[in-house]
Design a protein that fits this description.
Layout lengths: L4 H23 L6 H22 L4 H10 L2 H17 L8 H7 L1 H11 L1 H4 L3 E9 L2 E8 L1 H27 L2 H25 L25 H14 L7 H14 L3 E5 L5 E4 L1 H6 L4 H4 L4 H4 L11 E8 L2 E15 L2 E11 L1 H32 L5 H28 L8 E2 H15 L4 E5 L6 E2 L2 H15 L7 E9 L2 E8 L6 H8 L13 H12 L2 E5 L6 E8 L11
Parallel strand pairs: 9-11
Antiparallel strand pairs: 1-2, 3-4, 3-7, 5-6, 6-7, 8-10, 11-12, 12-14, 13-14
Helix pairs in contact: 1-2, 1-10, 2-3, 2-4, 4-6, 4-8, 6-8, 8-9, 9-10, 15-16, 16-20, 17-18, 18-20
GO molecular function: ATP binding; protein histidine kinase activity
Organism: Halorientalis regularis
EC number: 2.7.13.3
Length: 568
């Protein structure tokens, strides 16, 4: 019987695809997974070639020999698939010489039993060649060891497939595409072998003759599907070029070399891993920290909630160190959270710096005010009126500077009276204060039609804007006007003056919140405005105008609306 053209296409197409994939994978060494994948596809190629030659070998003794030689393919393929899956899914710690030796025991025993089968018939109780036209099939009765090997092979295939599926579910799209193609690569011959092993096979016409299908093993010829899927993984999903292990190794390397300590805790609050920095901070061996309750290492851990931070104090040989703890959930499972990651960040230097600045600020502010008051008092005893006035002016400016520094502290530290105040009350209070302080300046105001309340730092912000507008106004008829209105959930306040305008170096404080050594503001007033508005959650804008003077607009969130207020 002549073998059909379909048979030739199937056989040689399978050999070509499997061999090509073997060579391509081999060239990718030593990338993770390349060597075992090449071994797997090489075993598949061997299986296909020996099966194809055997089909056309009509001599009984040679046909039985080729049937035996086919076994090198299934002996290598399942262990190679599992090793590949372990490397590909970043479980390379399980791949060792001992593991490879253990995986090779059953295949080696199987090959030995195959070579000595006539003495014990454990693998096959009988094998006979049946000719069907131009092809020859082996009719084999399977012995007990055959089923031992099938069980072993299927277990390895299932284990590797499980890891790849797990990766496909948890990875991003590129790795999902790779994993899907790899599953097709291994599942196609697996399904074919399962069909053969159970003596159930759909009607397949390999030739023009109706075959006794229970004698035909389609497994090796399913590698044409495996080859196509593998080539798709290489060409479409960058298989072996971009493998998941690369990103995991990168993440592991980053964690291992971090300056922050990292502790991984399971859902029972037991430490399951930590990086070297965490072990150093806690002054213990890395292995000693694992499997201990995290509370034994961090006593205040139970008080820490996800998203919160807590500062702890640890006594070390180099002195007391302060660390900031934070917690992040690893994710959720059906039964709850999978665990937590606790990060430990050393904030000792920052804490000391803040303390130093706080002490420096308080000492300077206190001493500045006291010394300037002394200077101001002694100036009264001098005879030169002009010099006295100059000294007192400068001394008072320094006292005012200290007062502003203290006011900034109160705003930023949220000290003092934090009760809200209405916009109208702020306007009345600060406008009246400006009128008393600068009697030569006309200060007008227009209260909002509908009132609302804001946080009290608004008063300090408005006070400094009024002071800045009045103090630097050198017009013959200096004027300052404050207009306020409520627009939805915002209070909009504009301070307008007819003065010379704010210098460029001063504007940078409000616009970019920056100073340079060559361009800096002359005081703290506009800094107080900038920081105060930021504390209120609002914005401050310098409104450009073609006419002289300055318009500064404040937009501040309101807390709640109040009764309408009067207009002045």
């Amino acid at each position: 019987m002549a073998v059909s053209h379909v048979s030739f296409v199937l056989i040689w197409g399978t050999i070509t695809a499997a061999a090509a994939l073997t060579l391509l994978a081999w060239r990718q060494r030593p990338k993770p997974g390349a060597t075992p994948f090449a071994a797997m596809m090489g075993a598949g190629t061997w299986w296909v070639v020996t099966s194809a030659i055997g089909l056309f070998t009509l001599d009984s003794s040679r046909r039985i020999l080729l049937h035996s030689l086919e076994w090198f393919g299934p002996a290598v393929l399942p262990p190679a698939w599992l090793v590949f899956a372990l490397e590909y899914t970043s479980r390379e710690e399980y791949v060792s010489r001992r593991t490879l030796a253990a995986l090779g025991v059953v295949p080696l025993v199987t090959l030995f039993l195959l070579a000595t089968n006539d003495a014990h018939h454990l693998l096959y109780t009988d094998r006979a060649v049946r000719r069907y036209g131009d092809i020859a099939l082996v009719e084999a009765r399977r012995g007990p060891w055959f089923w031992v090997f099938i069980t072993y092979a299927y277990a390895l295939l299932a284990a590797g497939t499980f890891h790849v599926i797990q990766l496909a579910v948890s990875s991003r799209s590129l790795y999902r595409g790779q994993a899907a193609a790899l599953l097709v690569t291994v599942l196609a011959p697996w399904v074919g072998n399962l069909t053969y092993a159970t003596d159930y096979l759909p009607v397949v016409l390999l030739t023009g003759t109706d075959l006794s299908l229970t004698n035909f093993d389609p497994t090796p010829f399913m590698f044409v599907i495996s080859g196509a899927a593998g080539l798709a993984a290489l060409s479409q999903f960058r298989f072996l070029d971009a493998v998941p292990v690369s990103s995991r190794v990168a993440r592991d390397s980053v964690v291992e070399s971090m300056d922050d300590g990292v502790i991984v805790v399971d859902d029972d609050d037991t430490v399951i891993d930590c990086n070297p920095r965490a072990a150093d901070i806690l002054d213990c061996e890395r292995d000693a920290a694992v499997e201990r309750p995290v509370s034994a290492l961090l006593p205040t851990y139970s008080e820490l909630d996800e998203g919160d931070t807590e500062t702890i104090e640890i006594e070390r040989q180099d002195g007391v160190r302060y660390y900031e703890l934070s917690e992040t959930d690893l994710g959720s499972t059906v039964d709850g959270t999978a665990g937590q990651i606790v990060s430990i960040h050393d904030v000792t230097d920052r804490r000391n710096r803040v303390q130093q600045l706080d002490v420096l600020n308080r000492v300077l502010r206190h001493n500045l005010r006291n010394e300037m008051n002394v200077i101001y008092g002694y100036a009264d005893r001098l005879d030169d009126g002009e010099a006295v006035d100059r000294i007192q002016e400068k001394a008072m400016r320094m006292v005012t500077l200290g007062d502003k520094a203290r006011e900034i502290d109160r705003i930023l530290d949220d000290e003092g009276d934090s009760d809200p105040i209405t916009v109208s009350q702020v306007l009345d209070l600060e406008v009246e204060r400006a009128r008393e302080t600068y009697p030569d300046v006309t200060v007008e105001s227009s209260a909002p039609d509908g009132d609302a309340t804001c946080d009290r730092p608004l008063g300090a912000v408005l006070r400094n804007l009024l002071e800045n507008a009045a103090e630097h106004n050198d017009c013959d008829d200096p004027r300052v006007r404050v207009d306020a209105r409520i627009d939805g959930d915002e209070a909009i306040i504009e301070v307008v003056d007819n003065g010379p305008g704010i210098p460029t170096e001063e504007r940078s404080v409000l616009r970019t919140k920056e100073e340079t050594p060559l361009q800096h503001s002359s005081g703290l007033g506009l800094w107080l405005v900038s920081w105060g508005i930021e504390r209120l959650g609002g914005t401050v804008t310098i409104v450009e105008s073609d006419v002289s003077g300055t318009t500064i607009r404040l937009e501040v969130p309101v807390i709640e609306e109040s009764e309408p207020a009067r207009s002045e």
